[in-house]
Amino acid sequence: MDSLLAVLIVIFFGLFIYYWRKKNKTKKWIFLLLTILTSVIFTQTPYYKEQSVKNAESQRINSSKKASLSSQKSKSSSIKKDKADKSENTNSKSSSEKQRHKSNKISRYFTKKKAEGLKLGTAKNNVIKKIGKPVRNDGQMLTYDDFILYFENDKLVGGNLPAIQKKVDKKIAKEKEDKKNYESKLKGYAQAFGRKPVDTIQSMPSVYSADRVEDNMVYKWHPEGLPLMFRVDAPNNFTTVYEYDKNGKYGLLGRVLYQGRTIYQKPATQVVYQ
After folding, report:
1. Is the CB of residue 217 less than 8 Å from the CB of residue 209?
2. What's the structural domain count of the chain?
3. pLDDT per residue over 144-159, tens digit each?
4. How many angstroms separate the CA atoms of 185 and 189, rounded?
5. Which of 107, 198, 240, 262 has the lowest tally of Cβ within 10 angstroms?
């Protein structure tokens, strides 16, 4: 039945075309109406409905496939874009880190140069003002990125920078030299005091004060720029010169600077006649 209707539709439509070309209006409209009528009847057959359902299902499956492919393409495109964005962000971050590292390196270089120019004895607050805030402040020590500075009583006394250590070595060498010169000067004055004749000392009471302690004669002298000195002339004609120590570190009178025979009078000047 379904096949017959399909054949009739084709025949009627063919005859419609034929008579439309022959310009036979009556038969043309008859076969057009028969074509339409047969088509309507055909659409109500089970075969046509089954084919319609299959076509609809096929269209739905095709649409679903297209949507899935479109979604996959969109997802793939999104993934590629995310990867590109991540790569761009990574490159940007890497470039930013390199720039920041370079900036920090330059900053550390100038901080180090400023520290090398510091003078020993500079107050800690002034050090921070000159070279910047440290990474750590431990009271006796300031820690920076590339070096450490040491302090005593909030005064700069050293560091692990070669330039600072060089200043420390120079200071130590100078202090040793100054101490050596001071000792030499101190002992030279003590020797001159110990070898000075008694009559000369006693003739200058404004310079040398004198006291008798039991059987000993004690003379006091305070040369400019040096500590107070005591000269003790014992009854056995022996003279000892002490550096006075108010803390008593070296005994009651202090550290011994000179010992020798007591000279009472200035030797007479001998005139030799030729």
Report:
1. no
2. 1
3. 988 999 999 999 999 9
4. 6
5. 107
